[in-house]
TrEMBL record, chains A, C:
Chief subcellular location: cytoplasm
PANTHER family, A to Z: DIHYDROOROTATE DEHYDROGENASE (FUMARATE) (PTHR48109:SF1), DIHYDROOROTATE DEHYDROGENASE (QUINONE), MITOCHONDRIAL-RELATED (PTHR48109)
Dihydroorotate dehydrogenase catalytic domain residues: 5-283
Gene from which the chain derives: pyrD
Chain residues that bind FMN: 21, 45-46, 99, 125, 163, 189, 215, 241-242, 263-264
Descriptive protein name: Dihydroorotate dehydrogenase
Species this protein is from: Ructibacterium gallinarum
Entry EC number(s): 1.3.-.-
Record-level Gene Ontology MF annotations: dihydroorotate dehydrogenase (NAD+) activity
From TrEMBL, chains B, D:
Ligand binding (FAD): 47-50, 70-71
Gene this protein is translated from: pyrK
Binding-site residues for [2Fe-2S] cluster, renumbered to this chain: 215, 220, 223, 235
Family, as annotated: Belongs to the PyrK family.
Subunit organization: Heterotetramer of 2 PyrK and 2 PyrD type B subunits.
SUPFAM superfamilies: Ferredoxin reductase-like, C-terminal NADP-linked domain (SSF52343), Riboflavin synthase domain-like (SSF63380)
Biological process (GO), any one: 'de novo' UMP biosynthetic process
PANTHER family assigned: DIHYDROOROTATE DEHYDROGENASE B (NAD(+)), ELECTRON TRANSFER SUBUNIT (PTHR43513), DIHYDROOROTATE DEHYDROGENASE B (NAD(+)), ELECTRON TRANSFER SUBUNIT-RELATED (PTHR43513:SF3)
The name this protein goes by in its record: Dihydroorotate dehydrogenase B (NAD(+)), electron transfer subunit
Length: 303, 250, 303, 250
């Protein structure tokens, strides 16, 4: 049996598989399908200082091998999370990652302070395309990334992951800015900004007009970005974007990801997370690889 | 869960009636709940389809209209195929055996199908109002007749039954009969009107909502509607909600 | 019968359907499948001053509902085109668009001069991700876009389309730069930069490591960008990226495209161009729309 | 073109033998050409598969190994299905009826299949050398035997026929027999060696190349190989090239 443990910025995960924030809620629903302790970590739904209602429906549209969503960070707020969700989550033997949302730097700082060390890691969500303020605007400007990262880092009691937006010209620059700001790790990709129009009604399918594209369709872009970020920074990378099988996950790890997240695939198949974890293990065993960390960044580029 | 397709009938142009073998799901199924079906073909997400009936505690029946890529692919499955289905999902209709007066089930279009299971559970107490486009699109009326107290049909063009909307029939009934409760499923404009009329008559109403869905189990929060000022998940908190609280434009 | 003619920067096309440069060669192969006069325009394979060999194989990789290519602008050079391909192409009653490739501004200017007014329009390809110099580097910097556009415009004897890269933070800014440089139209999107790794060999599938993603997978991103560009500039837009059916084309036109190009879908189905053209016509007839120009930009945004 | 699947056999683990009805294509098919098949399932692009035989001038037979998503989906088609196929495509093998001495057909793995049609066209003149992994993977040897002068088999593990590579058999033959020409299809390393040996013996050699393809008809220029210092399209300029000119690492 291959060693599946990975160390992400000092936090040991029992395997490299986590959930894409926002696709797994706070885990309750999926706990009917499998034991959440099987996951390396659970990345929770975005949390903001105050509860948020998100955008009106429809909030989801199907695209070729992908989906657009415009949920817009609906969540019960950090306080309700601490009182209602966290105690329940703590029964599982897995790491918890809180995804931090905000409209201003102060928001991010405040939610980080509210959560303190109640979870194992923070993921700074500066890449959501579905909110008017904050969100993607922060994540597409290197100076902003460095600034918000360093301010949140100052108050963070747990390792800080910065989640990068793919809607940029130069992803490596954004990763370097996060590293410079003190990020302990980066995760990528968040969703690509997209739109779908219903030709019958002549209106965008999403009530919010535009939304974030995820799922298998985006995988080649995500793998490319993970590779580019691996060349640019030293901190660990959590790779995601369309991962559906163990082989997809291996592809991301070969490109340079130290761990992977599965999101949209789980929306289609609630067992996707477990299948991916098992698939990685199977790949390692079939290829006589003793430790999953051996494949991280092990892609051999053609000259 | 993989469920064998053991029954397949075409009821009308683009309308299919499927029966799948799934003892586990059938055992737990309640009226108003739905299945979330992987259709294949060009469809990436699952498609929600209501439970139309449970047969012999082992089979679930569902009826659907071919609308786009998903239902089109679904209609192509052959007997003996195994469908990947999640379910039964959602909160169904609440039965009120204590109701003394008439209980109205009001369906329109594809909203008719889930009401059959409900009518059956009512053991002959249901008065059913069904609206269709025209005579050709009238389906399952006989089945409803055998399990209900009364069936009223309306067609938009008057080619069968009452000429007009099912909501007109509703008003007629309310004007001359004591009614305890209303259940409704169908196009949003119809349900909105039904709920409004129910409100005017101070009648409790349960409405089964539709929204585009992702996971179907409550995790992705993409399928929300606004009920009582709160964003609720149609898949998990519904699809059946208190019609008085639904904000139809939210 | 609906009116299908469109006017793109003063050039009248008999219908709004053209070919994605590089997917249609110089038309010879597809002329076995249908009459090329059926197309509104033919956008030809990239042309450079000198012949180019392109990149080594494999040059194509399949991805979920898409492909990656790394052809790298292989072409016989402008001279050979003029002597060998153009006379043959002139037998067809359709407009011809030459796609101009280069590594330096001088290259672009030179190829435009060599072609003169031999074709009906030029498309300036400053967005190819598959060449080391020029290509995408030009297309991701607004100042460069304006500069190269204005210099090529000065020597252009025919209307100049500038083809935009989607690998940017702000597509509207790029479109405005093209317009400022004197572009008569813009076309978008070129391919998204991506990568696929073979987990068995642990090497990128493409011999050139990375390549350009096209096909249905990219459609939501392309539609969004066409909409954004429509809000930013006044010049005509040729929309593309994953168009496979008439309804897809209508989606792009509703978003703001005055014409559409089909590329990858034709690689899978040689009749795709004709199916798209017929599909647009069918949509217009079914919806009692007298003129295809009525749907351009006619999307009704949700408030 | 839609072609009905009229014959389907499993020849070995993961190897399928399909026959499709397509009089038009069959009429024009030449040895060494290929079909470009829309496989469905998760496969977006078509898949190139060589013509293995033409039967009764109306049917084309092709044999393929299940490798990935495309061939996997292809193998699932049932008799009577209609496959979307482009073809016949490419330039095939050139026949040289004037050849006086032995003509060698050298195949390995899936490269064996297209050689059957070639052997048949040679009307008994062909000497066939086939390489397989092991005894279990030996297929179609009997069929080749009935249409060829001679069949030599080699397996990597010696479990059947000659123990070793088909190129060793080739060397043996060349050392004791006059040979006019060589045709080869199979894994690139094998073909490279065959072409090298042919060169050393000043023999003409035709090699059928494989490359990842898009359109299959010559337009997208994604399937190139380097031949005589030029980038050539495998689909249109090939797949058969003069083996002396192929740059195996280009
Ligand atoms: C709880 C629930 C129960 C349902 N029960 C039935 C039933 O018993 N019989 C029946 O015929 N139909 C039913 N529907 C509607 C059915 O789900 C849609 O008609 C179907 O999803 C359309 O998919 P498609 O691929 O054929 O169409 P497409 O238009 O190709 O679908 C594209 C996307 O839109 C979504 N979508 C399209 N229309 C609807 C809709 N009206 N509601 C929700 N999502 C939609 C699809 O899920 C998909 O994501 C139900 C819907 C819900 C929410
Ligand atoms: C001219 C020609 C003739 C062929 N004839 C036969 C035949 O008669 N029988 C047979 O079994 N196979 C044949 N092949 C190989 C066959 O095309 C591949 O095995 C098949 O495409 C693999 O597809 P997949 O989806 O199963 O595998 P995947 O690995 O999932 O394919 C992924 C992608 O890689 C491409 N690909 C993978 N392997 C190859 C390969 N070796 N050559 C070219 N493209 C590849 C596919 O086309 C696809 O784009 C031929 C190939 C060529 C080029
Ligand atoms: C419905 C939905 C909701 C999402 N919500 C969030 C969120 O709240 N915070 C966040 O950082 N990313 C969010 N994402 C992005 C995912 O976490 C992930 O980055 C992206 O979907 C790519 O991975 P995938 O293709 O595996 O889904 C969301 C994605 C989806 C589909
Ligand atoms: C094989 C291939 C070659 C291409 N070559 C060129 C090219 O030479 N010049 C260019 O401007 N775009 C080129 N493109 C991009 C297409 O013209 C088009 O912008 C893109 O593929 C998106 O459209 P599609 O999804 O319909 O293919 C190429 C695309 C493909 C798939
Ligand atoms: S569909 Fe995911 S929460 Fe309802
Ligand atoms: S596959 Fe398109 S040119 Fe060969």
């Amino acid at each position: 049996m291959a060693e599946m443990r990975v160390n992400i910025a000092g936090v040991e995960w029992k395997n490299p598989v986590t959930t894409g924030s926002g696709t797994f809620g706070f885990g309750r629903e999926y706990s009917d399908f499998f034991d959440l302790s099987e996951l390396g970590a659970i990345c929770l739904k975005a949390l903001s200082v105050k509860p948020r209602q998100g955008n009106p429906s429809p909030r989801i549209a199907e695209t070729p091998k992908g989906i657009l969503n415009s949920v817009g960070l609906q969540n019960p707020g950090a306080e309700a999370f601490l009182s209602t969700e966290l105690p329940w989550l703590r029964q599982f033997d897995t790491k918890l990652i809180a995804n931090l949302a905000g409209s201003t730097i102060e928001d991010y700082v405040q939610v980080a302070e509210m959560l303190g060390d109640s979870v194992d890691m923070f993921e700074l969500n500066i890449s959501c395309p579905n909110v008017k303020e904050g969100g993607m605007a922060f994540g597409t400007d290197a100076k902003m990334i460095e600034n918000v990262t360093s301010q949140v880092k100052q108050v963070s009691k747990v390792p800080l992951i910065v989640k990068l937006s793919p809607n940029v010209t130069d992803i490596a620059e954004m990763a370097r800015a996060a590293e410079a700001g003190g990020a302990d790790a980066v995760s990528l990709i968040n969703t690509l900004f997209g739109m779908r129009i219903d030709v019958k009604t002549r209106r965008p399918v999403l009530r919010n007009n535009m939304g974030g594209l995820s799922g298998p369709a985006v995988k080649p872009v995500a793998v490319r970005m993970v590779y580019q970020v691996r060349q640019a920074v030293k901190i660990p990378i959590i790779g995601m974007g369309g991962i559906t099988t163990g082989e997809d996950a291996v592809e991301f790890m070969l490109a340079g990801a130290n761990a992977v997240a599965v999101g949209t695939a789980g929306i289609v198949d609630p067992y996707a997370w477990i299948r991916v974890r098992n698939g990685i293990e199977q790949y390692l065993n079939e290829n006589n690889i003793a430790d999953v960390n051996e494949i991280v960044g092990a892609v051999q580029m053609n000259d | 869960m993989l469920c064998e397709l053991v029954g397949k009938r075409k009821l009308a142009e683009k309308i299919y009636d499927f029966t799948v073998q799934c003892p586990e799901m059938a055992k737990n199924a309640r009226t108003g709940q739905f299945l979330h079906i992987l259709c294949g073909g060009e469809a990436y997400l699952r498609r929600p389809i209501s439970i139309c009936d449970v047969v012999d505690k082992r089979y679930i029946r569902f009826v659907f209209e071919v609308k786009g890529v998903g239902t089109d692919a679904l209609a192509k499955y052959e007997l003996g195929s195994r469908l990947d289905i999640l379910g039964p999902l959602g909160n169904g209709f609440e039965l009120h055996p204590e109701d003394k007066n008439a209980v109205l089930l009001i369906g329109g279009g594809i909203g008719v199908f889930p009401l059959l299971f409900l009518a059956k559970q009512m053991k002959g107490r249901a008065t059913v109002l069904l609206g269709f486009r025209n005579k050709q699109s009238v389906i399952m009326a006989d089945e409803f007749a055998t399990v209900s107290r009364n069936v009223f049909l309306a067609t938009d063009d008057g080619s069968f039954g009452y000429h007009g909307f099912v909501t007109d029939v509703l008003k007629n009934i309310l004007s001359s009969n004591p009614v305890s409760r209303i259940y409704t499923c169908g196009p949003a404009p119809m349900m909105k009107l039904v709920c409004q009329i129910a409100g005017e008559n101070a009648l409790p109403v349960q409405a089964s909502l539709e929204e585009r869905m992702g996971c179907g189990i409550g995790a992705c929060v993409t399928c929300t509607c606004t009920v009582g000022g709160q964003r609720k998940r149609v898949c998990k908190d519904g699809p059946v909600f208190d019609g008085a609280e639904v904000e139809w434009n939210g």
